[in-house]
What does this fold into?
Amino acid sequence: MSPTDSAGQGPALLTASNLQKSFGDHQVLKSIDLQIGKGQVLALIGPSGSGKTTVLRCLNGLEIPDGGSVCFDTGPSVEFTAGTTQKQAQVLRTRSAMVFQNYNLFPHMTVLENVIEGPIQVQRRKRSEAVAEATALLARVGLEQKHDQYPHQLSGGQQQRVGIVRALALKPSLLLFDEPTSALDPELVGDVLKVIKELADEGWTMMLVTHELAFAREVADEVVFMDEGVVIERGHPEVVLRNPQNERTKQFVHRLLNPF
Amino acid sequence: MDIDWQLFSDSLWPIVRGGLLGTIPLALASFTIGLAIALVMALMRLSANRFVSFLARAYISVIRGTPLLVQLFVIFYGLPTLGVTLSPWPSAIIAFSLNVGGYAAEVIRAAILSVPKGQWEAGYTIGMSRLTTLRRLILPQAARVSVPPLSNTFISLVKDTSLASLILVTELFRKAMEITAYSYEFLLIYVEAALVYWVFCLVLSAGQTRLERRLDRYVAH
It folds into this structure.
């Protein structure tokens, strides 16, 4: 099957072409092509070191690829070369927002301040408006009681939900999740996945790097399997995760589903 | 040995007054300006531009590698040779500010480096520029880390201002010297001056503790 078979209906929201990235001698990404349609959920899976997190970081301009391009439907689009600067890449952040594995909440700010920081400082929105929206978003993820707490007073699951709300508050077109549950205690994973699932059902466009294959199967419209900096296989989750065609995908999925 | 308690009590107010009108304002002004210099030097030192980083390194090296008293004398007694004549107060403030700038720069640099890289990335990813991230996220967190070492710098500075007496600034120690000039009670008056410095520093230490507690709000215990 061709790579675009399951790339969602309608025009692509984001197209990444020929992304390449090396750290020193190590080529982490070797010509990655990705497309994601509006409202689509794409799960990136693969062994650690396969480059999936780097892909996500390139899409947000946190990592500058050595070559390739990232284009949003109505802009911005960035052609990367060896001379591309952080400044040129940062326009990508006007359309996408990132949720980190380690939350990276601002420890010196309360939950509410964490959420309104972007809207007020960056998007120059009115404080009252930003607070009202943040309040509604926090209530949606079950954190209405936590406004005035500091991050260290929350559980990991609660912190990650704040991380998600902080991203949502920016009203991005695309949400990027970098292993959002990998740092969580097992019993807290469910709360966070539930929130992500709800966002998917609401039609948010999302790309997530994850090791939760069962979850990927449930929420993703497309699964992309990467290994050693290349896309090995992509397609509908039922195919890639249940009945993979490629030998490496088979091994990886088998190992994750049968760890012992 | 008889202690001249009358002289002791008569001298207390002039000495304390010298502290309040000389030592404290001199220390506060120099520390404020010094911190601004230190912040600039710390950022220059962290710059990816090698030349900029080198300039900061050279500055810090000169300041830390030469005695404060010598720096003070170069500015007050030396610069007039070049046609730059400064009165005692400006000379003292310039010398102490430059000195604090050199020492505090390393403290601030270390504090900035102690903030996890993820905080920079989180700032960038919500759309902040480097400068906004620094101002809103990194420096507030670095401030918490740097309060204890900067308090040390400040307390040292308060004591070092006694050197300004040698370039004729009327501060605490200058007052004490003036009293000994007519009373010849060197031990009594200098011990008294030492006690007043000590009380000042006790108050400052208490202030440091309170500031740390206030900044501790968001730190897990």
